[in-house]
Every structure is written in C-alpha cells, then in structure tokens.
Amino acid sequence: MTRFRQVLAVPGMTPLLGISLLARAAITADVMALTMYVVLALDMSYAAAGAVAAALTAGIALGGPLLGRMIDRRGLRTVLMATVVPQIVFWLTVPVLPYVILLGASFAAGLLMVPVQAVTRQAIAAMTTAGQRRAAFTLESVAGELSYMVGPAVVILCAAKVSPGVVAWGVGAVIAVGGAGIALLNPPLRAEDEADGDAAGRPRRREWLGARMVAVLTMGFGATMLLSGVDLAIVATLQEAGQVSWAAVVVAVFGVTSVVGGLVYGALPRPMPTWLLLGLLGLVTIPAGLAHDWPWLCAAVIGAGLLTAPTLSTVSDVVSRLTPASVRGEATGLQSSALSAGFALGSPVAGAAIDASVPAGGFAAAGLAGLLAALAGYLLSRRSPAAATSPSSSSRALQPCDAVAPAP
Questions:
Q1: Quick check: is 143 in a domain?
Q2: pLDDT surpassing 90 at residue 175
Q3: What's the domain range around 292?
Q4: Whose CB among 122, 199, 204, 365 lies 3.0–4.6 Å from 353's, allowing a Cys bridge?
Q5: 266 and 323 assigned to the same domain
Q6: pLDDT exceeds 70 at position 253
Q7: Rounded to an integer, what distance in angstroms lies between the CA atom of residue 198 and that of residue 403?
Q8: Which regions are flagged for Low complexity bias (predicted)?
Q9: What's the CA gap between 117 and 332, in Å, rounded?
C-alpha cells in the first residue's frame, strides 16, 4: 500500500480523485436516468429509451477528441465552463422536452459532456512521476469501478421513489458540481518540465498517433466491448434461470473483485503488458457461460473481475507515456472515445450472439472480442518502429514504453 499512500500524498491528488469519483458516478448513471425517464415518465418503449441512450453515447464518443483538443489550446477552465453550462441547460429541460427534441438534445449533451475522465487522466500524468503513475492510474480505474457500482443503482432506487424528472435534475446537478469543482481545483495538466511544451509548436498528429497508440486504443476499445457484453450476458443467463433479481448481486461481485484486482496490481513491483492482461481477461470470460445460476455465476466472474481494473489502468498508463504533453488532451479524448465506442458496441454484439444461440454465447462473444483486440494490439505494437523523441514532445512523455511492455 506504500505506492498508493505516495500517490495520495501528492498535493491536490486526493481532492481530484474525490471530485472525479462524484462526477463520474453521475456520468455513469446518465444513460440510466434518461432510460428511466423515457420509460416511466413518457411511457414509451425500451427501444425508444435505447435510442436516446445511443444518441448520448454517440455524442460522448465524438466529442471526446474535440474537447481534448480544445483543452490543449484554450486551457482547462475554459473548456469546463463551456461544458458545465450546456449540461445544466440540458438536464433542467429534460422533463419538458418532447421525445424527438430530447433525442437530438441528448446527442448535443453527449458532445459537450464534461470531460471528467479525460481531465483526471491528464492531471494524473502531469502530477505523478514515472514510478508513481501506474499506482495512480490504478486508483483512477478503481474509482471508475466504484462509480459504475454506485451511480446506476442510486438512479434506479431514486426513480422508484420520486419522479424520474427529479432524478434527471439530480444527475445534472452532480455533473455540474463535479465540473465546477475540478475547475476550482484547476489541477495541472503538464508537469513542470513540460511547461514549455508548446514552444516548439504542436506536433503533427501522425507523429504521435502511430501504430503503438492505435494498438493501445484498440485494446481499450476491446476491453470495454468485453465488459459491456458481460453485463448483458449476466442478465440473459439469470433471466433464463428465473433469477434475474440476483443480477445486481453478480454485478456487485464483479465490481468488488475488480477493485481488489486493481489494488493488488497497483502494488506489484512491475507491470504486465496490456495485450497479455486483455488476453487473459478474454480467456477467463468465455468459461463464465458454463454457470447457470447466480451462486455459480458469482464465482465464474471473479477471474474476469480481478483482471478488469488492471487492464483499464494499464491502457491509461500507456496512453500517457506515448503522448507528448502538448497533445495530451486530444489523446486522452481519443481514449475516452475508444472506451465509449466499446461500451456502445459490446451489448449489441453479445445480444446477437445470445439471440443466435444461448446466454453462454454472450460470454463467448465478449471473451472473443477481448482476445481479438489483444491480438490486434500485440501485432500492431510488434510492427511499429521504436518510439523516437521528437523536439515537440518531452522526454518524460515518450519513455520507451508501448502497448506490448509498459515500463515499470
């Protein structure tokens, strides 16, 4: 635990992670809040709710790199205020918007979603040393797991007790407070030795978005595609067994084991390659389809849970190491887009496999997606030339580390 104590002792790190956790819990729950509103308040189908959720997700995926590029050019506070205000307007008006307008407004809200995750990752890369970074990104991944466990559950509980419109207001308020809190905290996005990163000009995209970066983004996409598919496969398996009410318990076990796995991995003296972690995650996911009731399913997802946070934290670590300081916002935006796209695609792919076979097919499809992404990442990394330090990037940002074997 010494590594984690050192990270939390970094000035500003603890409040950053705390505010980020609060805001991410709300952002994680925004799709559920809109789903509950469309289904309960508008009395429309789940397909209609899914269209609104898809519009929001598509906006987030497209907006990530754009907002990241704006942060690189205009600064953190400018972008945060430019996104907090639209979020306030959107969530306040959700209860009065007709469905068709809500559909378009959801896309716009996603496009201008407060970039909490990307900003947190940028700040971690700037505030920590190379030796601290893996433990710091592990804590960030653990915070993501906690937000995933808490956010949607709170929204579902509140929607059953109060108006879904009020729940939407609450989600929007927390997102806005989180964005404003990070703006007030104003964490550094570049280290002291990176402060003059713009002096030599902004590097061209092809100088840093090479095969190694594409490899790690591909593996991030594959990891979240796997996780999204597993969620659906859990529900399908328990629905077939007549035990769907136990799905929350299985998901909780998955989340808790991910937190444990992340903490253990962050304390290890040396990291593991991203492709290996993702490949193992895919391998242990496939056999989970052999479980047919909730106690066995709880046991079956432990292996995948233990590898989830380590895989996601390693993706963040490698992205930070391969990115010059002056384009770190755009790179972390691309990372967020890749993760969002994986989440959006994972459920339909797993659903198609379940419809064509049995619930176990969902686990198989999710696991294979992870394996294919790991293989693609490995091959891309092996084919890429060694990273060279360019004049426009700091030596700190481009250490000899890639998607195959991250530096300790």
A1: no
A2: yes
A3: 203-408
A4: 365
A5: yes
A6: yes
A7: 26
A8: 385-400
A9: 8
Cα dist. 189→7, 55, 76, 79, 393 in Å? 16, 30, 8, 13, 14
Q: pLDDT tier at 389 (50, 70, 90 boundaries)?
A: very low
Residue reference for tokens 């997102």: 175
The total number of structural domains in the chain stands at 2
